[in-house]
Amino acid sequence: xxxxxxxxxxxxxxxxxxxxxxxxxxxxxxxxxxxxxxxxxxxxxxxxxxxxxxxxxxxxxxxxxxxxxxxxxxxxxxxxxxxxxxxxxxxxxxxxxxxxxxxxxxxxxxxxxxxxxxxxxxxxxxxxxxxxxxxxxxxxxxxxxxxxxxxxxxxxxxxxxxxxxxxxxxxxxxxxxxxxxxxxxxxxxxxxxxxxxxxxxxxxxxxxxxxxxxxxxxxxxxxxxxxxxxxxxxxxxxxxxxxxxxxxxxxxxxxxxxxxxxxxxxxxxxxxxxxxxxxxxxxxxxxxxxxxxxxxxxxxxxxxxxxxxxxxxxxxxxxxxxxxxxxxxxxxxxxxxxx
Length: 339
Known about the structure:
Strand order of the largest sheet: 1-2-3
CATH architecture of the largest domain: Alpha Horseshoe
Number of helices: 16
Mean pLDDT: 86
Structural class: mainly alpha
Radius of gyration: 22 Å
Largest sheet: 3 strands, mixed
CATH topology of the largest domain: Serine Threonine Protein Phosphatase 5, Tetratricopeptide repeat
Helix content: 55-70%
Shape: globular
Distance between the termini: 33 Å
Number of domains: 2
């Protein structure tokens, strides 16, 4: 489901079933697809069905990319339908495992927060930030922003004085409504007010929050441009000479990708990404569409399918990250040098 699809127009059970079928077709993407399917089961009120999908992933024979995230999601879901003791045990396990990804920390901390365990939530947000940021004074990775914002929110509710990380969260927050105002624990009182000015102010704050949530939700659904690594591109053009006009050279292919993404960014297109193709995957996709791999019109469809399967990498890369082209150099010193 795209984030701009009205919730009332979505059959969450049907969407979950579609994602489960797709996971059967693309087992290499089962983790991403079944996690989405479980979310739809939760939205449909089928908490047990969501747990079954999380268990299916955790019991799979192959390794998961982010098993701690799956466990965190399972714990959050279990707590929502009365399995508090099991949820707490899983949350303790996730925290003890000290995952190097921000998402599991966010999920377990927010689960604690939603059940009024504010002190434990604040401790969990802090543990995650201590692990992922340490004593770094540079700009924190985008993935850690929800940890900073969540910690700020909980500390505001606890009445704690601002510290350096709260001030960092304030600096990163770009909405027209400040974090202090968004996280004001007295806001709920304004919902019962009969003062039009107070109600209008609350509507503005809620709109600002909704915009931030929509931006975050839309990240997994990027406009994706297709990238072929050098060996894959050589094999592709050799097997399907008709594609030589589309890919006359490796350097031109890379330059076209960067130019296309910059043009899209300049036009205001959000959530841009790059997907990396392989010849076997592309041939399988062509067969599924009953089409010839030499058909150039199939390429954008393939890119869209890879993005929908969670294969997109956000563009531009975060500051200090390696270039998307695989050169081994930093993006700023490679294709991002002119930005």
